[in-house]
Specification:
Layout lengths: L7 E2 L2 E2 H6 L3 H7 L4 E4 L3 H13 L5 E3 L2 H4 L3 E2 L2 E4 L1 H8 L3 E4 L6 H13 L1 E3 L13 H6 L1 H10 L3 H16 L2 H10 L15 E5 L5 H9 L5 E5 L3 H10 L6 E4 L2 E2 L4 E6 L7 E2 L4 E6 L1 H5 L6 E4 L5 H6 L2 H7 L2 E5 L6 H12 L4 E6 L8 E6 L1
Parallel strand pairs: 3-4, 3-7, 4-6, 7-8, 9-10, 9-16, 10-11, 12-15, 16-17
Antiparallel strand pairs: 1-2, 5-6, 13-14, 13-15, 17-19, 18-19
Helix pairs in contact: 8-16, 9-10
Amino acid sequence: MKYRGIRKIGIMTKNEFSALTSWQERIKSTGKPVYIYGMGNGADKILRQLDRLGVRCSGVFASDAFARHNTFHGMTVTTLAEAEKQSGDMMILLGFGSSLPDVMAHIDSIADRHELIAPEVSVIGDGAFEKEVFLDRFEEAQAAYDRLDGEASRACFELLTKFKITGDLEWLRQAFTISPADKDRFECGAESAVILDLGAYNGDTALELASACKGYSRLIAVEPEKKNFQKLIRNTAALDSIEYINAAAWSHECELSFCSSAGRMAAVGDGGKTVRAVSVDGLLGSGRCDLIKYDVEGADKEAILGSKDTIRRWCPKICTAVYHRPYDYFELINLIGGIRPDYSFRLTQDVYYPAWETNITAYI
């Protein structure tokens, strides 16, 4: 399908994005056996995408330490060498994420020998990035692109879009180079700053925020998962003026079903335990706010909506993850920009396979 108009994202027109072969199309048209590398939550989601595409999964492989004596959806998990011996040339779908240099280098070495795709599936919930959906929402993506400050952010946006459409890691590797992680995103020049850490996890970002915003007067750390919350308190006990709230960040105060999981992946979802939810506006009232960090595992939209009065009144610096759902990287820019049209935005991509740890910084 061809799309009318001359609107562009970077140097790419809508028709040029349309001409890219999507990762779904690449999988459906391959004549090779299709293997999944990994056997975690991401691999589950990719297997469901294969079912939706009507493509049979030929097998699953993992590193030697994880392959032995394991099964995945009834398939014996092999090593790569065993898969190669069985099937020869194959298409490989990356089913997990990592920022470890040796793991990423191993993925690159596999991609040198086989066609490797990193499908853009939703980190939280099901679903995946679809080219046709993106093209139907192109004006929204263009609006977010137009809000970005600087060539690096705009180039990153274009490269991430190409990666999300194609699943080709080469586009993602270029994004690492063009738009490295924003090392200054937690800095706040306000005196006696009031800071909110939403999705505080084990306190790692609270420590970063306290270090970057020297002289802060109040740091509010919000974390819903109980084990993470206990680690948060232990790890930040030496900080001054820190307040702890064991709750989920949301659009309003209520109770939510919350699925507890190891590490950062705990998230709002059906079938979990009931947790308290709070909003930034409810916590602060009309009180001052200088910086808000959001990393709330897919509840980012709701947490931002729960901050809209604070954002309008105080224009805090905003640091938020935009990778939990496939279209967050433009939806959340437009959401914040709709609340305060005078915000500028930086988009950055940390070194990570696949495109996790994508972040925006909003500022006046």
